[in-house]
Specification:
The protein has an 8-stranded mixed sheet with strand order 3-2-1-4-14-15-16-17. Strands 5, 6, 7, 8 and 9 form a 5-stranded parallel sheet that branches. A 4-stranded parallel sheet has the order 10-11-12-13. With about 500 residues, it is of the alpha/beta class. The protein is about 40% helix and about 20% strand. It starts with a strand and ends with a helix. The protein is built from 19 helices and 17 strands. The structure holds zinc ion. Zinc ion binds next to loops.
Length: about 500
């Protein structure tokens, strides 16, 4: 148990009222005790009421709930490792060249970027984990361990998939596209991802068992995407959810080709198909959903679901932009995820929010456009709704976890900002990562003035650089050649689709 802390600021955003308006406390303080917000009120009253608490924050600062990156996969970005931005289906081929970065270094790398931009919770969807159950568990534990070292909160899931690993078609079809000399290389690579469904269920149950009593770690289910899952896998995802109540996060309808795949598979739209297996409901988050149509959204609304908007990723992978205004008009929780990386090839959540705020402004005075408070609510409360932590995070009301970000408001507004504009408007339009001066998770400070409390940022980045300087192996070169060859063949394969 730590001694109570009083953290004060000129403005504290504690959450949103039922209409979505921000709840703001002025000249206020929060009492943090045992990892939670224990009391809130004006600074003067709180100091009188809690004279023994340690005091931090103060004038010139603002406090917001910790941000939630609701869709994340990797640290070192595919682009950094030589995979150019391509339409998603081609990018799967392009990514065959990626080297296998040690999971701790990889996770810390993006963790640094997230925390420095105010992210306290990440939805880590782990999609590239070769090997048997032991190897996959080891990798998962090393990823979770890295978040733990940083002090972040993590909702981890090992992405379930059992088919169609490169094309929206059988793996054998992909192998048959390749020149004979490359088939063994590709087959060996694909065999690395051959965990049976039972084994995948075992990974989920084992991780849940290991982390069941951990405050900052939760395990959820990630049925990867319709094309990656056989009917048996979809059934199993639903069974795992029914047995445990763990929330699910599923990529769906990211590109028009995925919509076409659903049509080829039969039984209605992609959303209708997952609904047949009982997956659609308030515990399911649909990631991307760029090609959800009005009927799909109506079905989501009827059954309940969360959506996750991956703004940068949709742009970079040429997936389309997604109709965020239509998403928001459903009233469903809509989270925000950076996915692989944002438009600066990093994990800057403040910038991702700004991009989402700015991209969805169709012409016309009365055409809908998201407001700053809506976007901030996506990155906090609605993001929380997609994780097993739910209402414990995403706001700073009394009783909620003390996951919070202290911003130097003078830095946000320097040298001048007309005070007539609202707090969330200024935050969303102007706040950069340089204004993030302190980050707390569960009441514990994990970042202050550019430094991480438990991890040496510079040292870890240097280790990562040194790892990448290692000589390439024969297998690295083979996989790079495979990626180069596969790219054109995959493009040709899809040319007959549309
Ligand atoms: Zn993703």
């Amino acid at each position: 148990m730590t001694s109570p802390m009083l953290i004060s600021a000129d403005t504290i955003l504690t959450g949103f009222d039922p209409d979505g308006a921000p709840i703001l406390l002025e000249k206020a303080a929060l009492l943090i005790r045992d990892g939670h917000v224990a009391d809130a009120g004006t600074n003067v009253a709180m100091r009188r009421k809690h004279p023994d608490a340690n005091v931090t924050g103060g004038e010139g600062h603002a406090i917001i709930p910790g941000l939630i990156n609701a869709h994340h996969h990797v640290g070192v970005t595919p682009f950094q490792m030589g995979a150019r931005d391509q339409p998603l289906e081609l990018w799967f081929a392009e990514r065959l060249r990626l080297r296998d970065v040690p999971p701790e270094l990889d996770t810390l790398y993006s963790g640094f970027e997230m925390v420095a931009s105010g992210v306290t919770t990440v939805q880590h969807l782990h999609s590239r984990a070769p090997g048997d159950v032991t190897a996959v568990l080891d990798r998962a534990n090393r990823i979770i361990g890295a978040y733990d070292r940083l002090g972040m909160r993590v909702s981890y899931s090992f992405a379930m998939r059992d088919q169609n690993r490169v094309l929206y078609d059988d793996d054998q079809v992909f192998l048959d596209l390749l020149p004979a000399a490359m088939r063994p290389i590709a087959a060996r690579y694909l065999a690395g991802f051959g965990l049976s469904l039972d084994d995948q269920a075992q990974v989920f149950h084992e991780l849940r068992r290991q982390y069941q009593n951990r405050d900052r770690v939760a395990i959820q289910i990630a049925p990867a995407n319709l094309h990656w899952l056989s009917d048996a896998a979809l059934e199993m995802a639903a069974r795992l959810h029914d047995a445990t109540g763990a929330p699910m996060h599923m990529h769906l309808l990211e590109t028009p080709y995925q919509r076409d795949y659903a049509a080829r598979r039969g039984h209605g739209s992609a959303v209708a198909q997952i609904d047949r297996f009982g997956l659609l409901g308030p515990d399911l988050t649909i990631g991307h959903g760029v090609w959800l149509d009005a009927d799909d959204l109506a079905l989501c609304q009827q059954k309940g679901a969360c959506l996750c908007h991956n703004c940068s990723s949709n742009l970079r992978l040429k997936s389309g932009t997604a109709d965020l205004n239509a998403f928001l008009s459903t009233g469903l929780p809509v989270a925000l995820g950076i996915d692989e990386a944002g438009i600066n090839d990093d994990r800057d959540m403040l910038q991702e929010m700004r991009l989402a705020l700015t991209l969805h402004r169709p012409a016309g005075h009365d055409a809908p456009a998201p407001g700053a408070a809506q976007i901030l609510r996506m990155a906090t409360r609605h993001g929380a709704a997609t994780t097993p932590f739910r209402n414990r995070i995403g706001g700073l009301a009394v009783g909620q976890a003390a996951d919070l970000v202290v911003l130097d408001w003078d830095r946000v507004t320097y040298p001048w900002q007309d005070p007539r504009l609202g707090f969330t408007d200024v935050l969303l339009r102007r706040a950069k990562a340089e204004a993030v001066v302190q980050v707390f998770v569960a009441g514990r400070q994990i970042f202050k003035d550019g430094a991480f409390m438990k991890v040496d940022h510079k040292e870890e980045l240097e280790r990562l650089r040194q790892w990448h300087l290692r000589p390439r192996t024969k297998s690295d070169d083979e996989m790079a050649e495979l990626a180069d060859t596969a790219l054109d063949l995959v493009r040709e394969y899809y040319s007959t689709w549309r």
